Amino acid sequence: MSAPKWRITVLKLDHRPERDKRLTTHVGLTARAFGASEFWSAGLKDTNIMDTIQQVSNQWGKKDFIVLTGVKWKTRLRQWKEENGEVIHLTMYGLHVDDVIDDIRRSQQPKLVVVGGPKVPNQIYQLADYNVAVGHQPHSEVAALSIFLDRLFEGQMLRWEFPDAVLRIQATSHGKRIIEAEEKKRAI
Ligand code: SAM
User: Fold this and answer.
1) Does the pLDDT at position 187 exceed 90?
2) Rounded CA separation 6/104 (Å)
3) Tens-place pLDDT, residues 170-182
4) Among 75, 154, 57, which Cα is nearest to 112's?
5) Which of 141, 148, 149 should be mutated for ligand 1, with most atoms under 8 A from CB?
6) By CB count within 10 A, which of 56, 131, 139, 181 is most buried?
7) Which residues pair with 63 in a beta bridge?
8) Distances (CA, A) of 165 to 17, 69, 147, 161, 184
9) Which residues line ligand 1 (CB under 6 A)?
């Protein structure tokens, strides 16, 4: 199935290595698996996150997936908008995803999808082209990003294959089956 038609970058705000290691990694892995080409984490630099996601990409494909940590969100957001990109901020306070997703899908502009940390600066709400709510209940960055990308790609991204994958899953009703690139089958 064909690749995404937009350039999508996901930005997670406010990373602190000790507190957020797992969550930030999971946001990055979700971005990679569900159609983004880059993941940026703001806050403190964290090479562990970059290494973990890179290792996944090396094995499961999408080796060109870019991971940056310690990015300065203000500078990046301004640059993104100057370069005619669109900023989509996911927040429970925004417009319901189902009311704006068609407009977002129609636009060909590169999309920067922003998910928050504990406290999102008011400036983000103002700079965003869209503040989008995945329902109006508080849940999580991973849930919000997953559902947003699923709506954007109308579920198709779950069927995309990454041509440079070394490992692939052969779906089975029970157990685990992994196929290596050279077609050697390995049942675990
Ligand atoms: N009060 C926050 C808000 O504005 O959505 C919820 C904080 S939640 C712990 C952290 C992040 O998860 C938020 O900044 C947002 O990006 C995302 N999030 C949580 N619930 C969401 C929802 N219902 N819709 C969209 N994004 C959500």
Assistant:
1) no
2) 11
3) 999 999 999 998 7
4) 75
5) 141
6) 131
7) none
8) 29, 24, 25, 8, 14
9) 90-93, 115-116, 120, 133-135, 137-141, 144
| Ligand 1 centroid from CA 84, angstroms | 25
Q: Which of 22, 89, 92, 114 to mutate to test the pocket of ligand 1 (most atoms within 8 A of CB)?
A: 92
Q: How far is the CA of 1 from the centre of ligand 1 (A)?
A: 31
Residue 121 CA, ligand 1 centroid: distance in Å = 13
Rounded to whole angstroms, the Cα distance separating 71 from 123 reads: 17
The whole-model pTM stands at: 0.94
Of 158, 162, 140, 142, the residue nearest 150 (C-alpha) = 158
CA distance 35 to 113: 12
The whole-angstrom separation of Cα 141 and Cα 162 is: 24
Q: Angle of helix 141-152 relative to helix 17-33, nearest 10 degrees? A: 10
Superfamily of domain 8-158 in CATH is SPOUT methyltransferase, trefoil knot domain (3.40.1280.10)
- With the most atoms of ligand 1 within 8 angstroms of its CB, the residue from 90, 123, 145, 146 to mutate is 90
Q: Is the confidence at residue 129, as pLDDT, over 60?
A: yes
Measure the CA–CA gap between 67 and 47, rounded to whole angstroms.
Answer: 10
Number of Cβ atoms within 10 Å of the Cβ of 7 = 14
